[in-house]
Amino acid sequence: MIDVPVYNMDGKQSGTVQIDPALLGGEVRPQLLKQAVVMYQANARQNTSATKSRGMVKGSTRKLYRQKGTGNARMGTIRTNVRRGGGVAFAKGAQNYTQVLPKKMRRLARNNAILVKLLAGDVAVVDGLAFEKPRTRLFATMMRALEAERGCTVAMKDLDRNVFLSGRNIPKTDVKPVRELNAYDILRRRKLVFTREAFDCLVNDPVLLRGETD
Predict the structure, then answer these.
(1) Tens digits of per-residue pLDDT, 155-201?
(2) Is 86 helix (H, G, I), strand (E, B) or coil?
(3) SS3 for 35?
(4) Which residues contact 143 (CB under 8 A, 6 or more apart)?
(5) Residue 76 half-sphere exposure toward CB, CA atoms < 13 A
(6) Where are the domains of the chain?
(7) Is residue 66 over pLDDT 50?
């Protein structure tokens, strides 16, 4: 069993909770985690870069001058890539960078990412995380108390609007429902913070561990 510290909103430890590593795959699979991260990054590419080939630029297709007898090097169309204003030799175009992982691999990668954070001691549970209205300053103070100001993913059982609005303007801070977490969201931040309800949901709800969350 792995012990996870539980804090209040002031950053003071009030206890610990336990989780069985077997629920999260039992062992870390670095190759799977790398494959998952590469997939999420590839699928986030905008794919907007493009250059024009010689068939896309404007210009005549007529041969500039006859092949022999001029004393010049032979030359064809003005749109060739060796002339100014011509097309690009190996033009960039729309490419499909999309990658796909099977559901079971995505689920296991997410669970493995949580296990990595647990083994590194970078997981914290906050009891009673709630705001009556958006309070960014209080949220930032809590993150500093948890030593999570350099990057943090906050997982909640259900997305709370006030908590979300309190954390959305803080750099390197993500607030998400626990069911929407994926391996990349977890690994890209230094710290993983659960609310007590979200952690209990993770431990006690086998549907969450097996279900499609990404």
Answers:
(1) 988 888 988 898 888 888 889 888 888 899 899 988 999 988 888 88
(2) coil
(3) helix
(4) 149, 152, 170, 173
(5) 8
(6) 2-45+98-210, 46-96
(7) yes
Scanning the structure block, which residue is given the tokens 């209080």? 138
Q: Which CATH class is domain 2-45+98-210?
A: alpha beta
| 25 neighbors 108 (Cβ within 8 angstroms) | yes
Q: How far apart are alpha carbons 8 and 158 in whole angstroms? A: 19
On whether the CB atoms of residues 8 and 14 are closer than 8 A, the answer is yes
Residue 137 burial (CB count, 10 A): 9
> What is the residue-averaged pLDDT of the chain?
86
One-letter amino acid of 76: G
What confidence tier does 207 reach under pLDDT thresholds 50, 70, 90?
low
Which phi-psi region, left, alpha or beta, contains residue 142 (left: φ > 0; alpha: ψ -120 to 50)? Answer: alpha
Would strands 123-126 and 173-177 be described as parallel, antiparallel, or unpaired? unpaired
